[in-house]
């Protein structure tokens, strides 16, 4: 399974990154969290006090953004922005609020497309919104993971509370809905299920069950 490419797309909070990371470990593949790259740019923009919706201004600072993703032995992605590690910072709620505006920006998407293809081309599991539709339209396997909004809210709420953020069920729910709405309706590479993707509703599944479903598909077809 050395150079297969696996695309995992879906809405926010569907559990993509955990599954993608575990799938990558099981198959001895690289894992790339493409959402982390959009988040890193969002963090840079916020640090510079730039309005995330100011497309020209965001575009003009991209040349100052030097992104680097390293993989830890547990499969986690370490994210570096201009040589500074920002792995934890990019999970802040302020970044989650701004990131979908950053991701609507054509210049930002073009900036990341080639990086993502380069990292993934020799084999990887990539998770995001447009992996199966735009980054790797010829991926060996495409999965579209989703879950009910209630379940996605519950999971994300639990993660945030564990990490020490003070938030509520309703706040998280509104945030996920808002982000999905922007991601699905943007002009460039909107969130869509690829026609040849395998749809998996994980609402009533454990992570272990989801992982074995995906492994079954991949290992049964190699
Ligand atoms: O995956 P995560 O929720 O961290 O992604 C953060 C945001 O980055 C998404 O809401 C979306 O706006 C953007 N994104 C994207 N395309 C990707 C991955 C993420 O537009 N491939």
Question: Would you summarize the structure shown here?
Answer:
This is Cytidylate kinase. The chain has about 220 residues and is of the alpha/beta class.
What characteristics describe this protein?
three-stranded antiparallel beta sheet; 16% strand; CMP kinase activity; EC 2.7.4.25
Describe the structure.
Belongs to the cytidylate kinase family. Type 1 subfamily. ATP binds at residues 10-18. Helix content is 49%, strand content 16%. It has helices at 16-27, 34-47, 55-61, 93-103, 106-120, 131-135, 149-162, 169-185, 207-219, and strands spanning 5-9, 30-33, 67-71, 77-81, 84-85, 124-128, 141-146, 198-201. Strand 3 and strand 4 (77-81) form a beta hairpin. Helix 2 crosses helix 4 and helix 7 (149-162) packs across helix 8. The mean pLDDT is 96. Cytidine-5'-monophosphate (C5P) is lined by residues 12, 34-35, 38-39, 99-100, 103, 128-131, 179, 183.
Number of helices: 9
SSE order in H/E notation?
Answer: EHEHHEEEHHEHEHHEH
Distance between the termini: 7 Å
Can you give the mean pLDDT? Answer: 96
Molecular shape = globular
Fold blueprint:
Elements (H helix, E strand, L loop, with lengths): L4 E5 L6 H12 L2 E4 H14 L7 H7 L5 E5 L5 E5 L2 E2 L7 H11 L2 H15 L3 E5 L2 H5 L5 E6 L2 H14 L6 H17 L12 E4 L5 H13 L3
Parallel strand pairs: 1-6, 1-7, 2-6, 7-8
Antiparallel strand pairs: 3-4, 4-5
Bound molecules: cytidine-5'-monophosphate.
């Amino acid at each position: 399974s050395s150079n297969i490419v696996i695309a995992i797309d879906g809405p926010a909070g569907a559990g993509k990154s955990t599954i993608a990371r575990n799938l990558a470990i099981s198959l001895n593949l690289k894992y790339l969290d493409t959402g982390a790259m959009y988040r890193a740019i969002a963090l840079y923009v916020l640090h510079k006090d730039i309005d995330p919706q100011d497309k020209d201004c965001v575009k003009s600072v991209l040349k100052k953004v030097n992104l680097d993703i390293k993989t830890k032995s547990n499969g986690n992605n370490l994210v570096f922005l201009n040589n500074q590690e920002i792995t934890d910072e990019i999970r802040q709620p302020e970044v989650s609020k701004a990131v979908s505006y950053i991701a609507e920006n054509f210049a930002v998407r073009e900036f990341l497309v080639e990086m993502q293809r380069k990292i993934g081309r020799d084999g990887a599991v990539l998770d995001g919104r447009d992996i199966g539709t735009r980054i790797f339209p010829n991926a060996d396997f495409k999965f579209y993971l989703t879950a009910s909004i209630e379940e996605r809210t519950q999971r994300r709420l639990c993660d945030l509370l564990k990490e020490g953020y003070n938030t509520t069920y309703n706040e998280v729910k509104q945030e996920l809905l808002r982000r999905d709405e922007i991601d699905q309706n943007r002009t460039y590479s909107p969130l869509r299920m690829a026609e040849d993707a395998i749809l998996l509703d994980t609402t009533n599944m454990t992570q272990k069950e989801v992982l074995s479903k995906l492994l079954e598909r991949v290992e049964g077809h190699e």
